[in-house]
């Protein structure tokens, strides 16, 4: 996952994008399968305003699969997004996955979309997007002619109602990183139940898990690095990105408590422990892919070390794709 995080360093966008490209290049060399991009607006904390544009660049720059996690659906017209996804599916030889989600209730939703109303109810936009990608048509308008198959589409979910919405449309889900494995199991069950009610069947292997990720020589050191990185990330917040709903003040104590809570739901440890946790996730959730998020460790150097060590020391032991 490329958050294009500046880590509170004050680095320019050019520097941060350079770091991100180095992560992707190292991932390809180290045997990772995919790279996923994000979308954030009006903040110096992270620097990618278009997950789709960054994905297009990486499809041309690497031989990796590329996904968006996520393109913020309330910020985009669903048919325009379907056009772009179909194009990337075509020029990327089927390597592109469009992941969408509702984002966060911040000011970009007012600038680009329908504000809180669009954030709270994405069902109409999601149905339009899914139908346009499934059929290649919208109101008799052909989106992109001669595109083989359809672009894979998945909905980011951090709750049972969102998982049910995906199931109603027959869509896979991207399981959010802040949710424990038991809650993820509940979301997968709700998705499958809703899919069956609406005449769909979703292969669990089409779902995508996600987790913050750290490797160190000892499991305690890996967890400590994530606690430190996540605590700093939470305390920094997203300067410039105004919330549309009131949020409690983020204090040092609150950020520490949240970071320690989040670390209970991540993949972190020495190489053997990371491989064990990956195998366990695959067995418990059945998801065919997992998005690993090394930027939580808090520095560009830590990300590169994690990316390199994962290929050499973890993935072969996990016996699963990453």
Please give a structural write-up:
The structure is a single chain. The chain is α/β, with parallel strands linked by helices and 322 residues long. The termini are close together. It is built from 12 helices and 11 strands. It has one domain (13-318): Luciferase-like domain (TIM Barrel). Strands 1, 2, 3, 4, 7 and 8 form a 6-stranded parallel β-sheet that branches. It has helices at residues 13-30, 51-61, 78-91, 108-112, 115-120, 123-135, 160-168, 181-197, 219-236, 252-262, 271-285, 300-318, and strands spanning 34-37, 65-68, 71-72, 96-101, 137-138, 141-142, 153-157, 173-175, 208-215, 267-269, 289-293. The chain is globular. Keywords: Monooxygenase, Oxidoreductase. This is Alkanesulfonate monooxygenase SsuD/methylene tetrahydromethanopterin reductase-like flavin-dependent oxidoreductase (Luciferase family). InterPro entries: Bact_Lucif_Oxidored, Luciferase-like_dom, Luciferase-like_sf. It comes from Amycolatopsis thermoflava. It holds the Pfam family Bac_luciferase.
């Amino acid at each position: 996952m490329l958050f294009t995080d500046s880590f509170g360093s004050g680095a320019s966008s050019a520097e941060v994008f350079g770091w991100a490209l180095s992560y992707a290049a190292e991932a390809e060399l180290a045997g990772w399968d995919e790279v996923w991009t994000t979308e954030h607006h009006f903040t110096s904390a992270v620097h990618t305003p278009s997950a789709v544009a960054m994905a297009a660049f990486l499809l041309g720059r690497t031989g990796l699969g590329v996904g968006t996690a996520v393109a913020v659906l309330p910020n985009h017209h669903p048919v325009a997004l379907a056009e772009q996804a179909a194009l990337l599916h075509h020029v990327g030889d089927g390597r592109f996955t469009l992941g969408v989600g509702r984002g966060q209730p911040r000011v970009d939703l007012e600038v680009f979309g329908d504000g809180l109303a669009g954030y709270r109810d994405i069902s109409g936009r999601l149905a339009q997007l899914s139908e346009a990608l499934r059929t290649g048509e919208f109101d008799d308008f052909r989106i992109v002619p001669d595109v083989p198959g359809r672009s894979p589409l998945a909905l980011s979910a951090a709750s049972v109602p969102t998982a049910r919405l995906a199931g109603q449309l027959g869509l896979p889900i991207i399981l959010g990183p802040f949710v424990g494995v038991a809650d993820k199991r509940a979301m997968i069950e709700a998705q499958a139940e809703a899919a069956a009610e609406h005449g769909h069947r979703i292969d669990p292997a089409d779902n995508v898990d996600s987790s913050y990720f750290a490797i160190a020589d000892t499991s305690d050191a890996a967890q400590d690095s994530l606690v430190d990185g996540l605590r700093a990330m939470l305390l920094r917040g997203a300067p410039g990105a105004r919330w549309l709903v009131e949020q409690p003040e983020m204090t040092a104590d609150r950020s520490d408590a949240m970071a320690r809570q989040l670390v209970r739901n991540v993949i972190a440890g020495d190489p053997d422990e990371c491989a064990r946790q990956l195998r366990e996730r695959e067995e418990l959730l059945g998801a065919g892919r997992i998005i690993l998020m090394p930027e939580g460790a808090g520095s560009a150097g830590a990300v590169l070390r994690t990316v390199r060590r994962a290929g050499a020391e973890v993935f072969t032991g996990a016996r699963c794709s990453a």
